Each structure stands twice: as C-alpha cells, then as structure tokens.
Amino acid sequence: MRLSRQTLQQLPETIERPAYDPAGVTIGIVHLGIGAFHRAHQAEFTDIVLPRDPSWGICGVSLRSAETRDALAPQDGLYTLKVQDGQGVALRVIGSVVETLVAPENPEAVLARMLDPATRIVSLTVTEKGYCHNPATGTLDENHPDILHDLEHPEKPRSAVGFIVEALSRRRASGVPAFTLLSCDNLPSNGHVLKRVVTRFAEMRDPQLGTFAATVASPSTMVDRIVPATTDADRVAIADSLELEDAWPVVTEPFRQWVVEDDFPLGRPAWEEAGAVFVEDVSAFETMKLRLLNGSHSTLAYLGYLAGAETVADAMALPGMRELIEGLMVEEVSPTLPSLAGFDLPAYRRALIERFDNPALRHRTWQIAMDGSQKLPQRLLGTIRDRIADDASCERLTLGVAAWMRYARGIDEAGNVIDVRDPLAGRIAALTQGLDGAEGIVDAFLGLTEVFGGDLSGDQLFRSRLVDALSRLMSDGAGVVLATRKQSVV
Ligand code: CS2
Fold first, then answer.
1. What are the residues whose beta carbons fall under 8 Å from the beta carbon of 147, sequence distance 6 or more?
2. How many Å lie between the centroid of ligand 1 and the Cα of residue 442?
3. Which atom of ligand 1 is nearest to the CA of 371?
4. Mind listing the pLDDT tens digit for each residue in 143-169?
5. How far is CA 14 from each of CA 84, 90, 306, rounded to the nearest angstrom?
6. For residue 204, how far is its CA from the centre of ligand 1 (angstroms)?
C-alpha cells in the first residue's frame, strides 16, 4: 500500500497530515527545480499556510529527470517530511505540491502553467549552476550551451532562464501581468542575479521583451535548512513508521530559516505565519549564512572527503576539524560580516556547530563537494577578498580553497578516482593534466577567472598561500594537515 489521498486517513495518529483537503488546493506557484531542498523548505512553509488560503498550491517542475514526478504522481503529490536530530524524530505528510511536471518531456505544459493568470509566483531552486551565469561576476554567460539553445529554440527551452523569459513573453502578449520571481538558491543577492540574467536573456531575444522583463519583481531570499539526499534506508525506516510505502520522502533537521524581501505585486502566501521573516533587504542575512554556514560546509566537505570522512558529522569528528571550523567562523569570517542589529552572532555560530554535529543526518561530504566552481566565489572567495583588503589573515579559508583544488583534480589520497560533479570538471582536468607540483596546479586553477575574478587570479600573496596549503595537502594528506595544523601551517 502506498501513500496517497486515499490512504491518508489510515496513517498512524502520530503522523501529522495536511490540515486541509488536498483535493481542494489550486495552483498559485510554479516551482522550477523540485528537489529535496524545496520539498523540505518552501513546500513545508506553504503546507502550513494552505488551510488559510488553498489557492497557493505548488506545481513542481523538474528541469531534467522524471524521477520525482514518477515517484510523486502515484501518491497524488503527497510525501513525508522526516525531521530529526539526536533528540527525536517527527513525521509530517506534506500536501502542497499538487502537480509535478517534467520539462524535457513536455515543455508546453510547463509554459501553459506559467502563463496561467492564477500563477502569481515562479520560484526556483535550480542550484548555482542553473542560473547559467558567470559565478565571479553574476552576469549571464551568453555562450552557455543552454542559453545558446534557448535563443535558437525559444518555445522549447531547456534552462530555467529560457522558461521564465518565454513565459514572460507569452504573458506580455496575452496581457497577463508578470509573475513575481522568487530565487531560493544559495547565491548572494539571488533575486538580483536572477533578474539580471532574465533581463539580459530577454534583451537578447527582443529589446522590448527586455524592457518588460526589467519590470518584474524579483525579491531576494535567504534560505536555510540542511537536507541530505534521501537514501533507501530512509525509505525503509519511513515506511515502517507510516505503515505505508512512500517512494520519495525527505529527511531534514529541525532548524529552518527563511528571510524574504517583501515585494510580491500579485500577492503571496502568508508565509510569515509559518515562520518566514519578511524584511526590506536580506543581503546582510545572506552574506552571513553563505559565509558562515556554506563556507564552513564546503571547507568541511573537501577536507573531510580527502581525509576519508563520509558525512559532515564524521568530518566534524576528525582531529583538528572542529578547531579549524570554529576558528574560520570566529576569526576569519565574522569580522567581514555586515552588522545585523540585535542579532546574536555567537549563538548563531554555536547553533551551526551543533547542526554540523547532528548525528541523525547522514549528509555526505561528496554531496556538498559538488559544483565547487559555482559555490566557492560566494562561500569562501568573497571573504578572502575582504580579508586581503584588510590585510588580515585567511589561512583557514585558503586551506578550504586548496582542498577544493586537491579534490577537483579527481584522484583521492589513496589514488582512487573521485566522482567529481562540476560543470568545470572537464576543463579542470584538461588544465591540470600532467601537472604534479603545487605551483603549476595553483596557477592552472587561478586561470579560471570565472571563479576567481581578475583580482584574485592575479594576487601574488593569495597565490603563495595557496601553493603553501596545497603542497602540505599533497605531501602530508588532509588528515595530518588538520591534526597538526597549528604547528605546521603559518
Ligand atoms: C550545502 C547546502 O550542498 C551544499 O552545498 O552547503 O545545500 C546547505 O546544506 C544548505 O545551504 C543549508 O541551508
């Protein structure tokens, strides 16, 4: 027996279920990128407020594979959210995703949903690389293969940007006002980046369309919840509790945060009633979260993976890691953060350490290590830039970047191949092929100006620190570097 609207009533009493009739929900949001993160974050916030207004149901769109739709359609879109830490577990069935579409199978169905006047918000979790932008500058990569494709075939787009611009073009032609764009990805000023790439692509298609796109509201958001990929073991454990099968549950932590700029001309769900915080400007929150949480995460992921740690909690237990992460947050990142009046930064940092330690989440270092070329600019490099400008030390941040270089070359410390997932993986392999000295490798990486920007690519002090960190990683291994760091790294 499978979870569905029909079997919902059979669930054990301990399982929380929608406080509304899922059959009465209509679509108000099209969400591009219906992955685990969205289903543990925006979809839950929305689920909580649907009893108040059922016109904000979500149509979840997969831009690539049919997996999520194939799993959710037989369940009427219902799935379980399992929230757990060392102290306890809570299960809740979410009903806010009332439709799932697979864009490559039927782009027309996606565009029709986006054109529907009932669709008032188009939100996104398409990951950093889904913006088809230059990560160092935040501008559209006009030579991106998906962008070139979508320019050529505007009615059958591949990229999120292509779908948004085609839908805007159709709304404009039909006199339907533009939807609000809502980026929920881990990018600094995500709303601005999204608006910039959308407007530029619209301009490339037609200057008048560019003018229309420039009027679209695109509030920035800071999103936070740790959501590891669901495993088969999770499915088995959840089926045991539900006494029903659920093919696509999501497992997450209790902590959740959503800070949103309040700019929704066509209205929005009352997400504040589910705990979202509406502000005028999220940039200070974003910088704090990206630099403290995600910067630490990436550092943990690369060093941890190299030292043989499978999960973040395992990486935290490596000798020297906790000290490194605490030092990175307190001494190197925090002095660069804009001030947030009334915000308890030490408590936020302590909570982060506890979240990384969560023994109930198996968050793989390999998962976080993905797409480093797209993540490092906002997670580590911006902070390094600020530290260099202040003539202040950034040894721990630099070690994180060097660990990425060591990882991204694709061979681990035992000589085994690493499954490196990164849009630049091919280029990195070609650039560093045959190199075996730290200097040559660092120089090859620094040639990636779309990652390092012109300034850091040419910064001699940064280069020499990277060479130093990478040579230690190459000669001693990450575990030893971590354990002996205070003595051996300047
Ligand atoms: C992680 C994030 O995979 C990653 O790169 O750093 O997904 C992280 O778990 C979230 O941003 C937490 O909000």
1. 132, 140, 141, 159, 161, 162, 201
2. 26
3. 5
4. 999 999 999 999 999 999 999 999 999
5. 15, 8, 41
6. 33
Instruction: Output the residue whose Cα is nearest ligand 1's atom 3.
Output: 368
Which residues lie with the beta carbon below 6 Å from any ligand 1 atom?
A: 186, 224-226, 293-294, 297, 367-368, 375
Structure confidence by residue, pLDDT tens digits, 9-38: 999 999 999 999 999 999 999 999 999 999
What gap in Å lies between CA 94 and CA 44, rounded to an integer? 7
pTM for this structure? 0.97
Q: 112: which 2 tokens?
A: 């029709």
Token pair listed for 28: 């108000």
- How far, in Å, are 8, 47, 78, 117, 465 from residue 444 at the CA level? 56, 48, 48, 50, 15
Query: In ligand 1, which atom is closest to the CA atom of 368?
Result: 3
Report the separation in Å between the CA atom of 327 and the middle of ligand 1, taken as the mean of its atom positions.
20
CA of 262: how far to CAs of 32, 180, 221, in Å? 20, 11, 9
Q: How far is the CA of 155 from the centre of ligand 1 (A)?
A: 33
| Concatenated DSSP letters of 385-452 | HHHHHTT---HHHHHHHHHHHHHHTSB-TTSPBP----TTHHHHHHHHTT--SHHHHHHHHHT-HHHH
Give which of 85, 89, 87, 39 is closest to 355, Cα–Cα: 85
Q: Whose CA is nearest to atom 13 of ligand 1?
A: 224
Residue with tokens 């012109």: 454
How confident is the model over 43-55, as pLDDT tens digits?
999 999 999 999 9
